Automatic annotation (TrEMBL):
Stored Pfam families: Aldedh
Root EC class: oxidoreductase
Protein name: Succinate-semialdehyde dehydrogenase (NADP(+))
Record key words, sorted: Oxidoreductase
EC number from the UniProt entry: 1.2.1.16
Amino acid sequence: MDFHHLLKTQAYINGEFISAKNDRTFPVYNPTTQELICRVACCGAEDTDFAIQAAKTAQAKWKTYTAKERSKILQKWYALIMQNQEALAYLLSLEQGKPLAESRGEIAYGAAFIEWFAEEGKRAYGEIIPQDRADRRLLVIKQPVGVVAAITPWNFPNAMITRKAAPALASGCSIIVKPAPETPLSALALAELAHQAGIPAGVFNVLPTAQAEEVGEVLTASQDVRKLTFTGSTKVGKILMAKCADTVKKLSLELGGNAPSLIFNDADLDNAVDAVIASKFRNSGQTCICTNRIYVQSGIYRAFADKLKEKVRSFIVGNFDQENVQIGPLITENAVQKMERHIADALAKGAKLTLGGKRHALGGTFFEPTILEDVSQEMLVCHEETFAPLAPLIPFDTEEQAITMANDSPFGLAAYVYTQDISRIWRVSEALETGLVGINEGVISNEVAPFGGVKQSGLGREGSRHGLEEFLEIKYLCMKV
């Protein structure tokens, strides 16, 4: 696969690919082979200041474009991404490790946000309020918030950028993207296609760096950056939230999850198993909304466990370009060690290992898809996000018990419910303390629906018409006539 026309190793600032000011670089490795792919510009404080000023200058003009003019440019970006889907997918898998089929899906998923917001930007409607006095008129308009800083993760290095950049650009904001150091190449490839699409210089910028704190300090302290949008851990999200307090930035935070799946006795068993697999094992379990805790009612516990084990046992683990591969490597050695720690803790507290449980024979950061049975609520796996191909099964007896255990978490991003009882669907969905609920469905995210959590899983929503509002300010106009 020829992807080299999209392989960029310099920062993209003010419409140009440039080296970091001090010529620093950092390595990017292929997690499948542990081999060096390339070295990429390592931006610092000076580069960040330059990007902020470029974005500020560009945004002053970009906001004067009509929504239709911005839409046409975004549609070109969308079309170029889809034309280069295969190359983008290969590059994504090369730096992230997920199977090629999943990467193709991510490119299409990410591009869908650009297509959606290219149209939705035309619908940033204001309102006319019935006046309080005969000689006044009351109006509301919506305006772009200004320069946006976006800090994105490694697990979806394409889609987590487009999900933020598309509404920002559609609303008239400029944006500075700081991608994860593990996966900067997908971000820089998007910058190349944004350039080809005619997005004006300074409107879309990418700052690759291995010096996250240095760049983050400048972004959060700057008066000119009016919004920060971040996807990542709750720990880092809290730090960023605190650092943005001095300048009272608008915030969107999509943080950690610990998604429960609740499978009731009356569930369609085959559908529940397939949906749990789709949720749990996508991207080797490295998604923020993947099922982390699988609660199964006692009446079907054995049947569900056996069917799950039968299907997971057949998974193909391997390199991203291997035919029919379903499980790739974990992103780092630390991720492997966390999975090992969760398994050891569960076994020490009485859980039973029924499948997997050790590093894969392929070596590196490959790990066998693993199932634990008879897991209990006090185990680490019920309280920490594993982010790995580990499926813990927790039995329950009553609906109330399941809801209580599901809500026993500081996180509240996604949850899943499997039942044929329509009354239970309403009761349980409303009782779960999460921002998203999948009902008899394991793959729930798309561009037309709002994505985001409650509790310590974050603030704000991405996607849907609500995602556009995150990048707009409301201005009230009171006019004497």
